[in-house]
Design goal:
The protein is α/β, with parallel strands linked by helices. The protein has 2 domains: 189 residues, Bordetella uptake gene, domain 1 (D-Maltodextrin-Binding Protein, domain 2); 117 residues, D-Maltodextrin-Binding Protein, domain 2 (3-Layer(aba) Sandwich). It contains 12 helices and 11 strands. A 6-stranded mixed sheet has the order 2-1-3-10-4-11. Strands 7-6-8-5-9 form a 5-stranded mixed sheet, with helices on both faces. β6, α7 and β7 form a beta-alpha-beta unit. α5 runs parallel beside α12. The radius of gyration is 23 Å and the shape is globular. The N terminus is likely disordered.
Length: 330
């Protein structure tokens, strides 16, 4: 009897040790909270990650995707406060997670979020109409400087990434634009193709259709390196043929937006490590690499200290713009 009890206790101890080694795992359905409307960039980002997780069975529980894009994403980030400490609520967004509270009075603070990872960086390009006379980005900037506040720069929303980049561009070059906000990058691209604005700073995938159709033309990319080589988009040019803005004589070396994943504050450290590990595996799959190439983003996995450093630098750069423009809500 004593021997049987000893064996049973041994098996129990081994099972406990195995569970401890395995670490935290979700024990009920997981909700992926998307801080955008269906079909938006953050929605596509989230659903791509969900599909890879399901394909490779990286999470044993069902995953439900819910869109909470109200208030430029604030509705989704508010979950971090209403579900504090809940490891089954995973929030997908961008740098608006930490920038929105600067420009609007919201029901959450950045401290209500726990950073998990960033998996990609959105690139921004300076675009003009295809038949515009400017051959280079510097040519265009010189034309804007010659007639200040007459050229229209379109962008997605107010006090967001596009307007922030426009402010940076104006500050470093002296070119003064009229900034015109629209609802989303698709609308911005249509406005430029129709000649209703003079330029915009859309992401590559937001204007690739108009570039293929010969309606718009990229002048430079706000990245420290040229975009990866790939198939030609037009008969003569592909993404790698576009110079960086610094190459083109515009003193802006980098402006990129991270695609981010968060948990509510107070979430157990084991849960943070679990999701970080899952997302790292996602970023290494061929499906993810194909998605990054197709959407012309820069694949870069950030977590822990590297993510905190990126957020700190991005926050500092953006806050300087917000203060200069008077956007910060007191």
């Amino acid at each position: 009897m004593a021997r049987k009890l000893g064996i049973a206790l041994g098996f129990l101890a081994a099972g406990m040790a195995g569970a401890a080694a395995q670490g935290w795992q979700p024990t009920k359905p997981v909700e992926f909270v998307v801080t955008s409307s269906p079909g938006g960039g953050t929605d596509n980002f989230t659903r791509m990650i969900q599909s890879i997780i399901l394909k490779y069975k990286l999470i044993d529980q069902p995953i439900v995707v819910s869109n909470k894009g109200g208030g430029s994403g604030a509705e989704g980030y508010l979950v971090s406060k209403t579900a504090a400490g809940d490891p089954n609520k995973v929030i997908f967004g961008t740098n608006n997670a930490y920038l929105l509270p600067y420009v609007a009075k919201l029901g959450y603070k950045f401290s209500d979020l726990t950073p998990v990872a960033a998996l990609a960086l959105d690139e921004f390009l300076l675009w003009v109409k295809a038949d515009a006379p400017y051959k280079t980005a510097k040519d265009y900037i010189e034309a804007v400087k010659a007639k200040p506040e007459t050229y229209k720069m379109g962008g997605s929303q107010s006090k967001d990434t596009d307007q922030t980049l426009t402010s940076i561009l104006s500050t470093v070059t002296g070119a003064k634009f009229i900034y015109v906000p629209f609802q989303g990058g698709g609308a911005v691209g249509t406005q430029l193709a129709g000649g209703h604005i003079n330029s915009h700073t859309n992401n590559p995938n937001e204007s690739i259709g108009q570039w293929k159709a010969g309606q718009v033309r990229p002048l430079c990319v706000f990245s420290p390196a040229r975009l990866p080589a790939g198939p030609k988009v037009t008969e003569t040019q592909g993404w790698a043929d576009i110079p960086t803005c610094k190459e083109a004589g515009i003193p802006v070396e980098r402006f990129q937006m991270p695609r981010t994943v968060w948990l509510p504050a107070g979430t157990p450290a084991g849960a943070v490590q679990f999701y970080e590990g899952v997302l790292k595996k996602v970023s290494e799959t061929p499906e993810w690499k194909e998605y990054i190439a197709r959407t012309v983003q820069t694949g870069q996995f950030l977590s822990g200290d590297s993510l905190k450093a990126f957020v700190a630098n991005d926050d500092k750069l953006s806050r300087e713009v917000f203060e200069r423009e008077g956007w910060i809500v007191k």
